[in-house]
Structures are given as structure tokens and as C-alpha cells.
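User: two proteins, same treatment. go.

Assistant:
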Amino acid sequence: MKRLILLTLLTLAFVTTALSQEFFGGLILGGTTSQIAGDNRGGYHKVGVVGGAFAGLNLSKDFDVQMELKYIQKGSRSADFENYPVFDPFLIQLNYIDLPIVFGYNLNKVNINDVNLKWLKFEFGLSLDVLINARQEIQGITVPASNPWNRFVVNTVLGVRVSVAENIEIGLRTINDMTSNCNVGKGPYNNGNVNYVQRLLPYYGMYNDVLQLAVFWRL
């Protein structure tokens, strides 16, 4: 009986606390520039778009957590004819549904030269990518991908956001794969198009690296 009463009181306390918090939501729209570590190329030359929606909860005046559902384009592009006369122009287009969970820390307690930084926020989190479709081109001709693309990819998310209006923020993020975007087994392989690399896990693969610049509009 005592345990039931205690559980009831704890549940009521949790619900009351949750309801007292401020929920928010809105839309995301922006662009990306990306590369693929392991494709034997270099540089953020692939341009894409990103768009979707978000919902979040203010945990305190300093912290919030945000979940997102968005469409994002990633991949790689190269026109290095000097070093790759047979394989360039080269394109990998990877389109994902992206599901991030991001924690934000607002600098409203920080002052520099009597200027409060409440308009500045740092964010960090993880995201899960679900592959919608993929396309690879060599010399403008669509070819079968040399390796099967993984349907699911896990990423790290780091970023900074600046408030430019009451309900509008502009955010810059770096989104980097923790797991390979293609299934290549456990060893390196080089067929002229790719040169697999090793990242966090003890396996070789290819990894999306993305810079995202987007507008976050709270509704």
C-alpha cells in the first residue's frame, strides 16, 4: 500500500513537472554541402537541400531538447579531371529521412563586455538516417553503385544557433557519420572509385560529412 501511494505521488509529481514545461515546435528549411570520407575524393563540393519539422521541450531556462523529422540530401561530387580522368565527373547522391535528437544549451547566463549572449545557443546530439534512394554517376552516366548502400546510418550532430528574431533562429551544424553508409565488410578495398577508411568502429567504410545551414522557425 505504501509503495502504491509513493508510486502515485511520484507519478503525479512527474506529470505536474512535465506539464509545467514549455513545449514548442516549428519548421526547418535550409541547405547542405557535403563530402564522403572514403570515396577517394575530398572537399565539400556536393550541394543539397534540407527541410522538415521539429518539436521540443524546454527543460530549463538554459537547456532544451529537440526532436526533428526532415529530408536531407548528402553525397559527393568531383570534377578532378587531372587526377581522375577516367572516373570524373563523379557524383554520389544519397537522400535520407533524418531523425535527430538534439540538446541545446543557451548562453543567457554569459555576458561579454556587458553584452548578454542569450541569442546564442550550442547544440549537440545524435541522429538516425534512413536511406530513401541513392544514385551514382561517372562521366555523367548513371551506374550501379559499386557497393550496396546501408539503409540506416547513425550520426553525431554538433552546432550553433543564433536568434535573429523572436521565433526565428539560424543554425550551422556539422553532421558526421559514426557508421559506414555502405556495406564493405571488414577490410579496406580500392577499385579506383573508392578508398575505404576507418573511423570509430574497427571496420572500414565510407562516411558522410555534412555542413548544414538552416532556418528554424518556431510556430
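Protein 2:
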Amino acid sequence: MDWSMMNQPGEYFYSIAALFSGAAYILRNILWLRILLVAAAIMYIISGINLGITSMVGWNSAYLAINLIHIVYLMLDRITIALPEETRAVYARQFGSLSTREFKKLIMINPFCNFQDEIIVEEFGVPRRLYILLRGKVKIIKTEKTIATLHPGNFVGEMSFLTKEPASARAYAQDFVFCAYWTHEDLEKLKLKNLDVYNKFIAILGCDLVGKLKTKTDKHLEQITQLDFIL
């Protein structure tokens, strides 16, 4: 019997598996990359069975299990989950690039905090926390004049937080203000644990800064530099 003819199915499946593997690494979408790697592992397993290569079957069974687990996690991240009521408007306004599951983990890293008729960020102070408004209004005050008003979805003190330099104005909670916040340590942990979410978060911060640069809340802004109300 021709031995090469007996091994032809195994060779075919091996070639298909190699094709799937190569295609997977071309993709930028991590979910589809994992799906193609699962398909490749299945083809390798079938090829190993046909060729009688036990190690090929064993190792690719392990790769199959690992990629299936990652697919489950990726699918769970894409499933819409209920958000706390006070965060829904902020998510819709600023965080649409994140899944609801990613956003919930991000926004609830720390317990929410509140302020009432008090200073959140001191002028010339370096904030240790980056705040985002969930409810209420924050006045930005410079030389005893209100130069801007922040609303839910706006970050507070992001420039001085990121640069670790003194704030150019103070942020004052007008009546009752409800916030989420992050520390430098929180963001470092996020960067190490989930770089994709970290990069999206930094992009959202950048959009908030750009929006503030384009915003003029009253006539006072015509006499001051636009950067003065970015703390």
C-alpha cells in the first residue's frame, strides 16, 4: 500500500491549519484572531490524528482550550450589562468606545465620592486624584472669577493630574456633586492589566481636553488664554 496516499488527509488538514494560523496573525480584531486560532488548532488535531503524531494532538488540544477560554471572556465583555443609574448618561456621552462591562469595571475601580459647596481641586495644588463628574456642576474659578462650568461627563483636574504640575485654577463643587475618581496607581494597574482599555481611556481624556479648548462659557474667556480653565 502506498504510504503517502494514506497520509494525504493529514497533510491536507495540516495545510489548512497553517493557512488559518497565518490568517489569524494578519487580523487586528482580537476576537476574530482567537476564532481563527481555534479553527487552526482543530485542523492541527485532525491532522495529528491522521498522521499519528500524538504530540501534535496534545499540544493543539491545549491551545484549543486556551483560545476557547479567551473567546468566552471576549464575548462576555461584549455583552451589554446594566449600569448604575448615575453612570448611564456619562457612558452615553463619553465612553461609547468601551463595552458596558469594561466601563463598569473602569468607573467603579473606587467607591464614588461626593462634595458639597467645597473645593475639589486647589489652585496651585497638584491633585492626587482624577475626577469625573457623574452628577452636579463644578465651577472653575481663577482670580475669584468663574471662568467655566463643568457638567456630568467632564473630567476635573485632568491636566494637572496627568502632568503632576500645579493647577492653574480651582475647582469648586456647586451645591451637591457626585464623582468617580482614579489615582495614578489605579491607572498604572489598568495599563498593566488591560492595555486596550487604558489606551481608550487616555483617548477619552484627550477628547475631553480638546472639547474644553473649544469651549467658551462667558465673555471672560475672551480675555484669558483657553488653557486657563483646564486644571
